[in-house]
Write a structure and sequence with these properties.
Layout (H helix, E strand, L loop, with lengths): L4 H7 L9 E3 L19 E3 L19 E3 L16 E6 L17 E6 L4 H4 L4 H8 L3 E4 L2 E2 L2 H14 L23 H4 L4 H9 L8 H26 L4 H5 L3 H8 L4 H22 L5 H10 L2
Length: 296
């Protein structure tokens, strides 16, 4: 099936000129097209289709959350001009390690790559992804702390001294096309990306305090996603209805009320999982909420 103007009208949940959320999941779509008229799109769900290559997303500069899971994607060229994503779901595709170089520069709060056979068959899958992608905050539902990045760096240094060293998947001197050399100036970024880069400068020091700030921002971003989802799908997230800052509030009091907060968050995970399965095919929230339970 092709994306047509009629299909977009059918799937849209609000006025087309101001459309921010578009669910095109499970429609046997082969090719991404017809999105140029929707400059305000922030959330696009294209999971469970037949997409092999990513095209025509550059016309959506405000794009913040993109779900391309359960397709047949092998090439990431169509993402290379973006500077930031709140959520990027590429799980269950056919990506190779060399494709990750095309998103190495992108700041991604929440990245899902699990279910790509060429990646996951490596025994050091998570270590390699963290090494390849220095600007990812959370991978497959688990936050990447500053301590874990140090561990990954030490892993390769220690491995180099062994008889069978583990080689990096992407070297630091990997060829960079001329079109990508000044991506921080020529890349695409919307309002959410601008806000992120303002609050978290590229050259900021990574330490425990930065981990806490990132976790707080992840909570804020998840709240924003839930509000957007509720507005677009008319789903009934009662905890968002009554207090939109519920996750940030839970994090702020968790040190004093750890057991109670953990139990509440666990209940949220369970209830949210059932809601996601029935009302919203993009069920990545379960993993995101899971992070808030177990992080310090």
């Amino acid at each position: 099936m092709r994306i047509t103007s009629q299909l977009i009208r059918q799937q849209a949940t609000g006025p087309l000129p101001s459309l921010e959320y578009l669910d095109l999941s499970s429609l046997d779509i082969d090719y991404i097209e017809r999105l140029a008229s929707y400059k305000k799109l922030q959330y696009i769900n294209l999971q469970r289709n037949n997409i092999q290559d990513i095209y025509n997303l550059e016309c959506c500069p405000q794009l913040w959350s993109l779900n391309l899971s359960c397709n047949q994607i092998q090439c990431l060229d169509g993402l290379s001009r973006f500077l930031c994503f709140g959520t990027l779901i590429l799980s269950n595709n056919d990506l190779s390690w060399k494709e990750l170089v095309k998103i190495r520069h992108i700041h991604i709060l929440n990245l899902s790559l699990h279910g790509n056979p060429q990646l996951e068959k490596d025994n050091y899958y998570r270590i390699h992804v963290i090494d390849c992608l220095p600007n990812v905050w959370m991978l497959d539902g688990r936050i990447i702390t500053s301590a874990e990045r140090i561990q990954v760096k030490n892993f390769f240094q220690d491995s180099a001294l062994t008889e069978h060293p583990v080689r990096r998947k992407l070297t630091r001197d990997w060829f960079v096309p001329s079109t990508m050399k000044h991506i921080e100036l020529t890349g695409l970024f919307g309002e959410k990306a601008t806000s992120l880069l303002t609050k978290f400068p590229v050259n900021a020091v990574h330490n425990i305090e930065m981990d806490r700030k990132r976790l707080q921002y992840l909570a804020y971003n998840l709240q924003e996603d839930l509000v957007m989802e509720q507005k677009a799908t008319k789903s009934k997230y009662q905890y968002v209805k009554y207090k939109q800052t519920f996750l940030e509030d839970l994090l702020s009091v968790r040190c004093e009320e750890r057991e109670k907060c953990n139990m509440l968050l666990l209940l949220l995970v369970v209830s949210n999982t059932f809601i996601a399965l029935h009302l919203y095919p993009n069920s990545f929230y379960k993993d995101e909420l899971h992070v808030f339970i177990f992080q310090q």
